[in-house]
Amino acid sequence: MTESACSKSDSSQTLLRFYLPNVWDETLVAMLETQGFGHAVAESTYAFGALASDAEHPQRESEVRTLCNSDLCDGIVQTVESWFQAWGLTESQWRIDLEPHFVDETDPEALWQASWRPFRCAGYVIHADFHPREGLPIRPDDIPLTIFAGSAFGTGGHATTRLALKVLTDWCKTDPPTRLLDVGTGSGILAVAAALRGVQEVVGMDPDLQSPPQAARTAEVNGVGAQCQFWRGGYETARGTWPAVMANLVADLLQDGARDLAQLVAPQGKLFAGGILDLHWQPTCDAFASRGLKLEQKLERGRWRAGIWIKS
Length: 312
Prior knowledge:
CATH class of the largest domain: Alpha Beta
Shape: globular
Number of domains: 2
CATH superfamily of the largest domain: Vaccinia Virus protein VP39
Order of helices and strands: EHEEHEHEEEHEHEHEEHHEHEE
Distance between the termini: 55 Å
CATH architecture of the largest domain: 3-Layer(aba) Sandwich
Strand content: 25-35%
Radius of gyration: 20 Å
Structural class: alpha/beta
Number of strands: 14
Largest sheet: 7 strands, mixed
């Protein structure tokens, strides 16, 4: 059991940090939000010095954070502990930390700034604009990548976004594409990461109204605005064929859009597709195979799946 600190706090709000095996983090986020306990954020924790070549560990710890009124947090903690027990987690597999907080709980940017930390992945050092770059322990061959506070689209923390960053690094080191299409670009993190690796033409689109300006801003602050172009729209708005396509979406969109995605990949071109839960993996593979896409590599982190397909 976790000793409560909620009632001892003079703050009206408490930042709850739940640490648990990473295969359960998305489930916990969904349960917290479904039960009305507020918005939650999940991040897998990595040692800052971790390199892209380091082995992945299926039981690596994840952190889930939510901000709540202090008078409610005892009940939330007790409820979450009961979920952990129902999921078969032993007390050695999880812990809960409570931190008094003095920010407006309705302000997602304040929550994000209070809890988000820089991390290294695939040779990138991902950090927010409020982190002074001179204070980051950047190695000579690291590539700093700045994202903006309160990003609603993608910060690199999700399991398949990390997989996508590693795939981008591998592609750019072994067979660098000259052009890349990022479908569902969100914050633009993958598009900008590709441009920082030297891809000369990067195009991204997203149906969300806020995505293109945010992605363009991300490209500009990272010094690659001239290489990147973004617009509002789905994969059906893209034209031509591309030697490299990134589609870090969800399984339903990938399956429904298999035909359009296949048409965007040039002959012998590569498609990265991620955001696929394990139970949706095979239907997604079947949808791609029916459109002439051959699976080259399967990638896994916890319950999340991603893959690289080649256009035959």
